[in-house]
Specification:
By secondary structure, the chain is of the alpha+beta class. The chain is 18% helix and 42% strand. The longest helix is centred in the N-terminal third of the chain and has 34 residues. Pfam families: Alginate_lyase2.
């Protein structure tokens, strides 16, 4: 711009040459600037391409459905979701239940490794996720998500991500999720229970459940007990009850589980599940989901209870959270 102003104010015989030079320089700058502006948009799809689904089948050693340990869970799973484009309102479906039960898997994102069900994200960005999404369950009954998970920790790992949650359909929010956080309030590598007190923005409560061990850590999220929700991690239990009956436990509501890797900050994530079950608590027993409602006059019976294995044994004493660890393989 300075050269152009000088040329207009003080013309001279070589002005034509100077004008051409200025235009050339300005043109180069415009092209360079355009490339700078365009490069992030051009690079972004390439950066996120690693989260594409690319399902495969035919290898029983890699297909989670071929493992007896996860058959019941996957029978009650709606789909595998893989989101590489931050589609928070409508997460893309990678595998539907029919494909999961047919033995399909996502080779780099969701598969069996050494007998464990593994979820993986490499170089992900905020809101990227690889998650199983469960079938809807009646929110008026006690439900429980139980698992045993090992989380990879290294320099490339995301400092903040969710590994499991109970999600509400109406209103559409996570009721409680388990979040790994590398550094929050001076606590390093802790898992936090994050409860939503209501539907307003930032209306959440955080409670630390303790640090990850480096090995397999046992956890549970128990929905509906004592008109609230309990979160347990390696024997440490926290309770949340604010607005629970009013907001979450409604006859018009349903809940479902989600589990896997859901990034809250950029980085890698690998979650290896040795155990993962979503179950209904009924009559001091825990049985596999789901139940079908069957009307019997003025009462409601539940079909499907017989024949299901309970990891707690025949009965479970109410509110005995020490069993959370004892019931899972160490």
């Amino acid at each position: 711009m300075i050269l152009r102003k000088t040329y207009v104010s003080h013309p001279h015989p070589g002005a034509g040459t100077l004008h051409k030079c200025v235009l050339a320089v300005m043109g180069s700058l415009l092209v360079f600037g355009a490339n700078i502006l365009a490069s992030p948009l051009q690079a972004q799809p390439q950066k996120l391409a690693h989260l594409s689904c690319n399902p495969e089948g035919g290898d029983k050693d890699k297909a989670p459905y071929t493992s007896a340990r996860f058959v019941n869970l996957l029978d009650h799973t709606m789909k595998l979701q893989i989101d590489g484009n931050n589609e928070s309102k409508s997460v893309p479906t990678c595998l539907k239940q029919k494909q999961i039960r047919a033995g399909f898997y996502a080779p780099q994102r969701w598969r069996m490794i050494e007998g464990n069900m593994v979820f993986s994200i490499d170089q992900g960005v905020h809101r990227n996720r690889v998650e199983l999404r469960g079938l809807d369950a009646d929110a008026t009954f006690e439900q429980e998500l139980v698992g045993s998970v090992q989380l990879r920790r290294d320099a490339e790992t995301s400092p903040k991500y969710t590994i499991a949650q109970i999600y509400s359909r109406k209103p559409r929010f996570p009721v409680l999720r388990l979040e790994f956080n590398a550094n929050r309030q001076g606590k390093r590598d802790h898992v936090w229970a994050v409860y939503r007190n209501g539907i307003g923005p930032r209306n959440q409560s955080y409670k630390s459940l303790g640090p990850v061990s480096g090995g397999f850590d046992n956890f549970s999220i128990r929905f509906g007990e004592d008109n609230g929700i309990y979160a347990t991690f390696n024997g440490v239990t926290k309770f949340f009850g604010t607005n629970f009956p009013k907001v979450w436990r409604s006859q018009n509501n349903s809940i479902h589980y989600k589990a896997g890797c859901y990034l809250q900050k950029a980085g890698d994530c690998e979650a290896r599940f040795k155990v993962l079950r979503f179950q209904r608590v009924m009559n001091a027993r825990i049985v596999d989901q789901p139940f079908a409602k069957k009307s019997t006059g003025n009462t409601t019976a539940k079909a499907g209870m017989a024949g299901y294995e309970t990891i707690w044994g025949a009965t479970r004493p109410a509110r005995d959270h020490a069993l959370d660890r004892e019931a899972l393989p160490q």
